[in-house]
Amino acid sequence: MKKTILTLLTAIVILSCKNEKQTNGKLNVVTTTSMITDLVKNIGGEHINLQGLMGSGVDPHLYKASEGDVTKLSNADIIFYNGLHLEGKLVEVFEKMKNIKTIAISDAIDKNTLIGSEYFASNYDPHIWFNVDYWIQATTFITQKLSEAIPEHKDAFQTNGANYIKQLESLKTKLTAKIETLPKEQRILVTAHDAFNYFGKSFGFEVVGLQGISTATEAGVQDVQKLSSFIIDKKVKSIFIESSVPKRTIEALQAAVNSKGHHVTIGGSLYSDALGNSGTVEGTYIGMFEYNVNTIINALK
């Protein structure tokens, strides 16, 4: 692990010394997860050269940088990443970079408000994008950072940021109204791993993940049996797979529940650690969130 990180870091340092950073007079901005890529795109627009490392269906917990990623990182002027050790195998690389500005968007959020986690080295649950208010704070933060880096386009960034915040506020209002149609006793969300704790805290759901907070952990037979008993006791109608996590664990959970005489369906696939395909509605943060809530409500009603 350490040898891989050292090799990657060395390659980035060497390449960054050889390459000119700016392309077509614009700053090269690199992002990690697809959620951050979408956010920076909404703010930076045509005034930056933007490249994302992780596409649809990619699990950031297990992500390993490719040779192409090394080139992107070495040519970057700014790198935006989630932080809180979400990108576990890249964090040490980001922290040791000296000639490239690396910015964790989680720095925008008061750590005292975050959900704790014993699994991550940061001691916090990193799935912050499922709290719309946090995403609004991240929008303001990124707007500020881009304005500082490219002051000649400050007005454009601030206009874009303000417009996007309005969209996020409208999203929260729409989602809240939709969720209010689901009785509180039915707001139990069972998924492949604990990516939805911020969602649950924001909208009043009890959230249970089979694999825990990181997909780097494996769900065992005891985990499946314990959760199957919970589903039966709570009379849960549907459970959910995730687009970035293999569905076999949830299928095993469904089989365990059904074998005990309680019928539970798979209510659909939710987007957790990655957005949908580029060019689709679900390929945007707002579209992803609306799709998830509609899928959850339709399955649990």
Task: Write a brief structural summary.
By secondary structure, this protein is α/β, with parallel strands linked by helices. It has helices at 2-18, 34-44, 67-74, 91-96, 132-149, 154-179, 197-203, 221-234, 248-259, 285-300; strands at residues 27-31, 48-52, 78-81, 101-104, 188-191, 206-209, 238-242, 265-270. The chain has a 4-stranded parallel β-sheet, with helices on one face. A two-stranded parallel sheet has the order 5-6.
Task: Give structural notes.
By secondary structure, this protein is α/β, with parallel strands linked by helices. It is built from ten helices and eight strands. The protein has a four-stranded parallel beta sheet, with helices on one face. A two-stranded parallel ribbon has the order 5-6. Helix 1 packs across helix 3, helix 2 (34-44) crosses helix 5 and helix 5 (132-149) runs antiparallel to helix 6. The longest helix is centred in the middle third of the chain and has 26 residues, at 154-179. It is globular, with a radius of gyration of 20 Å. Mean pLDDT is 89; it is low at 14-20.
